[in-house]
Specification:
This protein is an all-alpha fold. It has 21 helices and no strands.
Length: 479
């Protein structure tokens, strides 16, 4: 039963996040401090912030666990694997470049035309991701306190947009760490209560199909394939991940943090899927994404408020970092050579946050928003970023066509082809996969019909032999 004590806990949590954001305002008075924390993040900050960013779809994974069993955890498992792949491949070289946003990578390796295209697509994608925080947090308040969804999202939006715009990436990091730790505590509390509420392990095993407990069932492997294209590749080219790596103190800090964050997020995914799976026994027929809040409502006074805050934390993590990332993409994409005043940057951040709220009000579905985002960003960026670091012949024209055609094919497949396929073929023929194939072909054709790139551009990303190897443009940090 929900009491005034639970309300006080939730309101106190929102107030605490706002206070932290105001305090961090003092650390964000300079351009570099606001966008990349002055490149001062240590392993602890970076690991927990990376894990927090990834876990923003926790309610969505609970919903997958409710509907599909433990195989729903592949959503997060493949993100963790993505962190490890990034560690093995280009994480170190990214930190050496020491830029601000993924758009800077396109400017350095390709040209301004590519930078602007990625800016447009990236801002759209991260406003969609930003809206996940409002939808998830709104579902928590709606499910537990009975507040209509639109008003619940507004309660989340106003303070979170405000303190993020004020405090920049420092506010994002510190509040994300607090939120993530609260989320972990909440998941630890929910697992045993969800299992007890379902009638115990024996009742769960008797009620659910055997494949619900098997990560490597046919359905589980198909999820792994589908989420590889959606989640693993997204981590490899995600603008938010890049911005965090640019904020690291050193190459070593960036690499270690990716290893640790990958481990943490896999455990969070398994816990979230298990909670959803247990809730499906106790609450058959409810909305899958409401499974964790439904379990929270059965807890004792005070404990339900604590778990509500934990679920709110998991959802609202997305708000702060994605708002900053979208604002950074705009700032660096449109004004790469100009250091705007802090007031202008904060205003851009607030506008981006407001756009995220509008998106949440129109499309209040977490998994749909995540899938739509990655079906745009992965075909736009995966092939071109990979080519930037591994293919000397990749040209600006090839990259531009690759991003544009990859996204177009992915969107056409998403809205015109995918709805007509069975679930099995939807998983096998994931639009991201189709878009990536199209982007590869476009990159190859576009690169070979245009002139090769200059040595100066290539050697920033691919080590070259010869006397010009030590070339370093102004502004590229070699730490």
């Amino acid at each position: 039963m929900i009491t005034s004590i639970d309300w006080v806990i939730v309101i106190g949590y929102i107030a605490l996040m706002f206070i932290i954001g105001i305090i961090m305002y003092k650390r964000s008075e300079a351009y570099d401090d606001y966008l990349v924390a002055g490149r001062k993040f240590n392993v602890l900050y970076l690991t927990l912030t990376l894990a927090a960013m990834i876990s923003s779809a926790t309610l969505g994974v609970c919903g997958l666990g409710y509907h599909f069993g433990l195989s729903g955890a592949w959503f997060f498992i493949m993100l963790g694997i993505g962190a490890w792949i990034l560690f093995i491949t280009i994480a170190g070289r990214l930190r050496v470049l020491a830029q601000y946003a993924i758009t800077d990578i396109y400017e350095l390796r390709y040209d301004a035309r590519c930078r602007i295209l990625i800016t447009i697509l990236g801002v759209f994608a991260y406003i969609s991701l930003l809206s996940i925080g409002f939808v998830g947090g709104g579902h928590v308040l709606e499910g537990i306190f009975g507040i209509p969804l639109i008003y619940a999202m507004l309660i989340i939006a106003i303070p979170f947009i405000a303190y993020t715009a004020l405090g920049g990436i420092w506010a994002s990091a510190v509040t994300n760490i607090v939120k993530f730790l609260i989320l972990v505590v909440g998941l630890v509390v929910l697992i045993p209560f969800a299992l007890m509420g379902a009638g115990g392990w024996e009742k769960v095993t008797m009620t659910l199909p055997p494949d619900s407990f098997n990560l490597f069932s046919l359905q589980g492997l198909m999820f792994a394939w589908s989420f590889f294209w959606l989640m693993t590749l997204s981590f490899w080219v995600a603008a938010d991940i890049y911005q965090m790596l640019f904020s690291a103190k050193s190459v070593r800090t960036a690499r270690i943090s990716l290893i640790l964050a990958g481990i943490v997020i896999i455990f969070v995914g398994l816990a979230a899927a298990a909670i959803g799976m247990f809730a499906s026994v106790q609450f058959p027929g409810i909305e899958p994404e409401a499974s964790a809040p439904a379990v929270a409502m059965t807890l004792h006074t005070g404990l339900s408020g604590l778990v509500s805050v934990a679920l709110l934390s998991g959802s609202a993590i997305a708000v702060v970092i994605f708002q900053i990332v979208a604002a950074t993409l705009l700032v660096r994409g449109i004004w790469p050579k100009v250091k705007l005043s802090m007031n202008k940057i904060r205003a851009i951040s607030a506008i981006v946050g407001s756009a995220g709220f509008v998106t949440a009000a129109v499309f209040p579905n977490i998994i749909f928003l995540v899938e739509l985002t990655f079906r745009v960003m992965i075909p736009a960026t995966f092939v071109t970023v990979l080519a930037a670091f591994y293919w000397k012949r990749a040209t600006a024209l090839g990259a531009f066509l690759s991003s544009l055609i990859g996204v177009a094919v992915s969107m056409i497949w998403t809205f015109l082809v995918l709805p007509n396929l069975s679930l099995e073929y939807q998983l096998m023929l994931e639009p991201t996969f189709i878009g990536v194939v199209a982007s590869v072909l476009a990159l190859i054709i576009g690169s070979y019909v245009s002139r090769p790139p200059s040595i100066d551009k290539v050697q920033l990303f691919i080590p070259l032999k010869g006397p010009s190897t030590n070339y370093s443009p102004e502004g590229v940090d070699k730490k």
